[in-house]
Write a structure and sequence with these properties.
Radius of gyration: 25 Å
Number of helices: 17
Oligomer: single chain
CATH architecture of the largest domain: 3-Layer(aba) Sandwich
Structural class: alpha/beta
Largest sheet: 6 strands, parallel
Order of helices and strands: EHEHEHEHEHHEHEHHEHHHHHHHH
Low-confidence stretches: 355-361
Strand order of the largest sheet: 1-6-2-5-4-3
C-alpha cells in the first residue's frame, strides 16, 4: 500500500499497521514521519524499541529476523527499526525483508519500520520492495521544491503561532527566507524554531514577523546542487542562477561538473531540436534523449523559442568554457572558470526566460 506523506497523520488516526517503509532523501521529513509512527505506537502500548543499521555485504540478518519474529521479553509490544542507508540490502537482505514482510501479517505485537534512501526504478521493481509494499505501507518522502518552499515555511511558522506580514511585504519576506535556506530543509526547520525563540507569540507584535526581523535572524544556510542549477537555468531564473553558482563555488563544487551539467543541457536541446527538424514528434524526441520529469516540461516550454543559430552559438560558448575551466585562456572571455560559467549559464538563461513576465525566483 502506497501512502503520500501528507496522508500519514490521517492514516495513523484510523489505525496503525504492523509494517511501514519510509524512503526518500529528505532526512527531516523522514524523521518526522518516523516520530509520528513512534508516537502513535507508544499510545497503543509499543513500549520497547530496537534499531538495526544494515552496513556492509556481510551483515547478519538473523538478529533482525529473530527480533521481528519473537515476542518482547520486557513488554507486550515492540518496535523494530531497520535502516538501510545504501538502499541495497543484498541477496541475503532481500530474502530476509521478504520474510519480515510476510511475518508482519497479523502480527499485533511487533511493529516493523524500514528506512531507505530515495529508491530508483530498478530498486522499486525488486521482489523485496514489492513485498514491503504488498504486506505493509510504503511512504515516499519527497524534497520540498523551491517553488513551494515559501508556503512550507509559512505553514511551519503558523504551527508555532507566527506569520509574516500581509501583502507584498509578507511575500517578500517568505521569498527571502526561502533563498536563505533552499536545499537545506533541516537548517530551515532550525531557523524557523529560532524565530519562535527570538520573537515569542506572547511578545510585542503578536506573532507577526516583519522583513527586518527575518533578515537579521535567518542565516544563509542554503545548499545547492548542479541538478537544481540546471532546472533554474532552463526556467530562466537569472537571479537564482547567480545565487546558486555563488553557492556552489563557496561549497567547493568542481568547475568541470558544473560545466558538464550546463553543456549537457545545451547539447540535449540541440539534439532534440535537430530531431524535430527531421520530422520526429517532440514527445518521441524527448524520450530518445532521456528527458523526463521537470526537465521535460522545461524543454517543452523553451524549445520553440530557441533557434538553430542560438543553439549553435551556445555550443560554441560551451566549448570555449570547457577550455577555460581546464586552464586555457580565451580572448574576450573571463580568465576565471567560475566567471566563465556565470557567463555561459546566463547566456542560456536569457534565451530560456519568458520576456513578457517578471522573473519567478
Amino acid at each position: 500500500m502506497q501512502l503520500a506523506a501528507n496522508q500519514l497523520v490521517h492514516h495513523l488516526q484510523r489505525g496503525l499497521k504492523s509494517l511501514y517503509t519510509l524512503h526518500g532523501d529528505e532526512p527531516l521529513l523522514q524523521q518526522e514521519a518516523l516520530d509520528a509512527i513512534r508516537a502513535t505506537a507508544r499510545q497503543q502500548g509499543y513500549t520497547e524499541r530496537t534499531s538495526h543499521t544494515v552496513a556492509g555485504a556481510h551483515f547478519d540478518w538473523s538478529e533482525v529476523l529473530a527480533a521481528g519474529g519473537s515476542l518482547s521479553l520486557f513488554a507486550d509490544k515492540q518496535i523494530v527499526e531497520i535502516r538501510i542507508p545504501s538502499g541495497k540490502p543484498g541477496k541475503d537482505g532481500s530474502t530476509a525483508l521478504q520474510q519480515l514482510a510476510e511475518m508482519a501479517q497479523g502480527n499485533d505485537s511487533t511493529l516493523t519500520v524500514v528506512m531507505l534512501p530515495r529508491m530508483d526504478k530498478m530498486s522499486k521493481s525488486s521482489a523485496w520492495f514489492a513485498a514491503l509494499e504488498s504486506f505493509g505501507v510504503t511512504l515516499q518522502v519527497d524534497p520540498v521544491e523551491r517553488a513551494v518552499l515559501p508556503q512550507w515555511i509559512a505553514q511551519r511558522l503558523a504551527v508555532q503561532g507566527q506569520r509574516v506580514a500581509a501583502g507584498e511585504e509578507g511575500q517578500r519576506t517568505l521569498q527571502f527566507f526561502a533563498d536563505r535556506v533552499e536545499g537545506n530543509l533541516l537548517a530551515a526547520h532550525q531557523e524557523i524554531q529560532k524565530l519562535g525563540l527570538l520573537y515569542p507569540v506572547d511578545g510585542a507584535g503578536g506573532g507577526v514577523l516583519g522583513f527586518k526581523q527575518v533578515e537579521s535572524a535567518v542565516l544563509n544556510v542554503a545548499r545547492y546542487d548542479v541538478f537544481k542549477l540546471s532546472e533554474a537555468v532552463l526556467a530562466g531564473q537569472s537571479l537564482r542562477v547567480q545565487r546558486m553558482l555563488d553557492g556552489l563555488q563557496a561549497e567547493g563544487e568542481a568547475e568541470v561538473l558544473v560545466h558538464y551539467t550546463l553543456s549537457e543541457d545545451i547539447r540535449a536541446l540541440k539534439r532534440v531540436k535537430d530531431a524535430i527538424a527531421q520530422g520526429r514528434p517532440l514527445p518521441m524526441a524527448l524520450r530518445e534523449q532521456r528527458i523526463w520529469g521537470p526537465r521535460e516540461r522545461l524543454f517543452e516550454r523553451v524549445l520553440p523559442r530557441l533557434s538553430d543559430t542560438a543553439l549553435s552559438q551556445l555550443l560554441q560558448s560551451a566549448h570555449v568554457v570547457d577550455g577555460i575551466v581546464k586552464g586555457l585562456k580565451q580572448p574576450d572571455w573571463p580568465a576565471s572558470g567560475w566567471q566563465a560559467l556565470h557567463r555561459l549559464a546566463l547566456q542560456l538563461c536569457a534565451l530560456c526566460a519568458v520576456q513578457t513576465r517578471a522573473e519567478k525566483l
